[in-house]
TrEMBL record:
Protein name in UniProt: ATPase
UniProt cross-references to SUPFAM superfamilies, sorted A to Z: P-loop containing nucleoside triphosphate hydrolases
Extent of Basic and acidic residues compositional bias: 463-480
Gene3D superfamilies associated with the record: P-loop containing nucleotide triphosphate hydrolases
Species of origin: Niastella yeongjuensis
InterPro entries named among the record's database cross-references: HerA_C, P-loop_NTPase, T4SS_component
Residues in Helicase HerA-like C-terminal domain copies: 36-505
Pfam families per the UniProt record, alphabetical: HerA_C
Residue ranges, annotated region (Disordered): 455-482
């Protein structure tokens, strides 16, 4: 059959690479799995980002697991954001079962169970390496975008950062930032306005409310020290495999803003820290974001723009980003256009809206003469997907229906005992276990305000003391200085003067009068 032969040759030509690559599955045409049509993905383009999409239960997470295993084998470190809590099993070897045997009989190959080097991480109080970052590391622009501030409020945040830099007051956690906001709104307002310009109290009030909203989502666990070092994400195990960092964020499903905050900060830190890498044979790090719709669900336009910018630029640093979500439409079009690898599992068409969504999803993939994409999207089985990638020259490969290779690690979660053993063996857990609370803006401002209060109290105490010293006079002095005493003295002096003048005959008419005074 010419059509079949042409298809087989197309797969061989487009999915076999000169450089290092890994097998993801075998091509399917109609209902036939075609021998000799193994589908490979090149490591060289894994920093061009990707999408793994499909309805619930179609095998997205297992595809993510499969690619992560292949990257680890190729000495590429991986970061998995585990929203559902079902990725920790990658640290344990899988087991052969009937479904795996049946799949291998179709696609060929040998199943070799394997456990992979894993580091468990957390943003909260779950077991694992604590990830933190300081407020200063975010910077005023990124922090303002996360808080969804307007231009005026963003200017005040920049002013606060400038004031803290000028006065050597580190902004480490949210209580530092809140303390400075309160200070510039009250006691320090005159000082700030004299040096930096006027500040509207209404704006600082809004910023404070936004920060408190972030706190309500548990951000206090994330902001602080010791700050996580990006290099610790890019470690290689003793056996030469890349370490798979599993960030357990099962408690983030209702805290979208905190999840977005972490992801954006991590990307920004990677971009700022890593040097330009250019074209590499394989990436330095690949990040997988499961349930990616949580990142974009409540993101502001400013935040989306920031994510889009970093996605475009971080490729040149050797970092790949993969979004795993139910529908391609969950990812903004501007970001979707940047994703080189697309693995599309089945979509369900239960309603008219679903059918419309499927047609839109089909338009995201290259046209093909071998499939009717929108129909096939509803007919794919579990563990099957439509695949298109970038070849080593950066050109999109033709769409191919692929039956995927099963993961070699456990396709289930670790037990509590296994998690405890993994955590106890970790060097990073000990490194980041204890909170640090060195002197920062909160303590410095508190000391400054306390010193000012003590001076004020001392001045208030000094005033009555000075006043009492001035009033410490004898009773005689007080009597003599009174207005009544002075008036009596003036009257007595007048009487005495008249009496003397009369005695000397100088008193005029009064000199002939009878003496009335008994003093002479």
């Amino acid at each position: 059959m010419a059509n079949k032969d042409t298809f087989v040759q197309s797969v061989k030509d487009n999915y076999t690479f000169k450089g290092e690559s890994f097998r993801i599955g075998t091509a399917v045409l109609g209902e036939e799995v075609l021998a000799g049509t193994d589908v490979f993905l090149p490591l060289k383009t894994m920093n061009r980002h990707g999408l793994i999409a499909g309805a619930t239960g179609t095998g997205k997470t297992k595809t993510l697991q499969l690619i992560a295993e292949a990257l680890s084998d190729a000495s590429v470190p991986v970061l998995l954001m585990d929203i559902k809590g079902d990725l920790s099993g990658i640290a344990a070897a899988g087991t052969v079962n009937k479904n795996i045997e049946e799949r291998l009989s179709k696609i060929g190959g040998e199943y070799k169970p394997a456990a992979f080097p894993v580091e468990l991480m957390t943003l909260s109080n779950e077991k694992g390496v604590r990830l933190r970052a300081t407020v200063s590391e975010f910077g005023p622009i990124l922090l303002s975008k996360i808080l969804d501030l307007n231009d005026t409020q963003e200017g005040i945040v920049s002013l606060i950062f400038k004031y803290c830099d000028d006065n050597k007051m580190p902004l480490l956690d949210l209580k530092d930032f809140i303390k400075v906001i309160q200070y510039v709104s009250n006691e320090g307002k005159k000082e700030i306005e004299a040096a930096y310009g006027k500040i509207a109290t209404t704006s600082t009030g809004t910023i404070l409310r936004k920060v408190i909203e972030l706190q309500q989502q548990g951000a206090d666990h994330f902001f602080g020290e010791p700050s996580f070092e990006i290099d610790d994400l890019m470690r290689i195990a003793d056996d030469g495999r890349g370490i798979i960092n599993v960030l357990r964020v099962t408690d983030m499903q209702n805290r979208h803003k905190l999840f977005s905050t972490f992801m954006l900060q991590m990307l920004a830190e990677l971009y700022a820290t890593l040097p330009e890498a250019g074209d590499m044979d394989k990436p330095k790090l690949v990040m997988f974001i499961d349930e990616a719709h949580l990142v974009f669900q409540e993101a502001t336009d400013a935040l989306l723009q920031q994510i889009e910018t970093i996605i475009k630029l971080i490729r040149s640093k050797g970092v790949g980003i993969f979004f795993c979500t139910q529908n391609p439409q969950d990812v903004p079009a501007a970001i979707l256009s940047q994703l080189g690898l697309k693995v599309q599992h089945a979509l369900r068409a239960f309603t008219a809206a679903d059918r419309k969504t499927i047609k839109q999803a089909a338009e995201n993939y290259p046209e093909t003469e071998y499939y009717k994409t929108d129909d096939l999207l509803t007919q794919l089985g579990i563990g099957e997907a439509l695949v298109t990638a970038l070849n080593e020259k950066g050109i999109p490969t033709p769409l191919v229906h692929t039956m995927l290779v099963p993961p070699r690690s456990r396709m289930d979660v670790l037990t509590d005992t296994e998690i405890d053993n993994l955590v106890n063996q970790s060097k990073l857990v000990k490194k980041y276990a204890n909170d640090e609370d060195r002197e920062s803006a909160c303590e410095i401002l508190a000391a400054k305000l306390e010193e000012a209060a003590q001076k004020s109290e001392q001045q208030a105490a000094d005033k009555p003391a000075k006043a009492s010293k001035k009033e410490e006079k004898s009773t005689l002095e007080k009597v003599l200085e009174s207005s009544v005493t002075k008036q009596i003295g003036r009257t007595a002096a007048s009487v005495i003067t008249r009496s003397l003048l009369g005695a000397l005959g100088l008193g005029g008419k009064s000199s002939s009068r009878k003496k009335t005074s008994s003093w002479f």
